[in-house]
Each structure stands twice: as C-alpha cells, then as structure tokens.
Amino acid sequence: MYSVDIEWGSMEYTYTIDSEGTWNPGTHQYTGKTEGRWTCDDGADQVTVTNHSNAAVDAAFTYEAKSGYESIDGSFNNQETTLKTAEDTEVSEAPNATATLSLTGALKKDVPTATTIGTATVTLNAAN
Fold it and tell me: Containing H/E element for 123?
C-alpha cells in the first residue's frame, strides 16, 4: 500500500531587479551596483516528501518554466531520492526527503506582481 505525504512551501519568490547604481559625475562611473536576485521566506522554497508506505518510493523533483519565462531556470538541490519503506518505524520517524528550489535568471521589469513563472513537480514511483 502506498501512502506518501507531500508538503509544499508557498513557492512564492521575490525578484529584486538589478541596479546600475548611482552615476558619479566626478569619476564618470556608477557606484553601488547590485545584481538582480531571487529571495523567499524561510522554507517557502522547500518540498518535503514523507513515505508512510510499506514499500520504498522514488521521488523526483523538477521545474519547468512557463512560456515567456524561459530565461528563468529553476533547479532542486535534491533532484531524485529513494525513500525506504516505513515498515517498523515510528510515524514521526517515517522516511522523508526535502528538496529546495533555487531560481536563477532575470525577471523582466514589466512583469506584474504575483505572476506564475513556472511549475514545480514531484513525481512518485515504486522503487526498484
């Protein structure tokens, strides 16, 4: 029998656009340049899979950019894992794995707030 819990973080990220900094006419250079970056609340970028089955389970974590947002890459630090059977374990000690989604690439400046840029997927299969 298969019974697997999947707990999702909110998967809500904030993109801070890059800044060329402030023009300094005395040096003819910009100062205070910052690179664009993705941030999120603690744990918002995580997916945890817990196996309560009497059989081992393979879990794979993938990300696919939505059309128009292909310049943004997403990758999980733990792309696939095998969770052992939960037989003879306490419920609180059930086999589990957590994967963290990191985003890279620039978001266009004209994107409205709260926009879906891609899809994160967890695929489960019986372990071999």
Answer: strand 118-126
Which tens digits make up the pLDDT trace of 46-82?
999 999 999 999 999 999 999 999 999 999 999 999 9
Q: Is the Cβ–Cβ distance between 95 and 50 less than 8 Å?
A: yes
How would you class 74 by CB atoms within 10 Å of its CB: exposed for 0-12, middle for 13-18, buried for 19 or more?
buried
Q: The tokens of 123 are what?
A: 């695929």
β-strands 57-65, 80-83 pairing: antiparallel
Q: Tell me if 60 sits within 8 A of 123, measured CB to CB.
A: yes
* Cα atoms found within 13 Å of the Cα of residue 78, Cβ hemisphere only: 17
Rounded CA gap, 122 and 28, in Å? 50
Asked if residue 13 lies in contact with residue 103, where contact means CB atoms within 8 angstroms, the answer is yes
Nearby residues of 110 by Cβ (< 8 Å), 6 or more positions away: none
Q: What single-letter amino acid sits at 47?
A: V
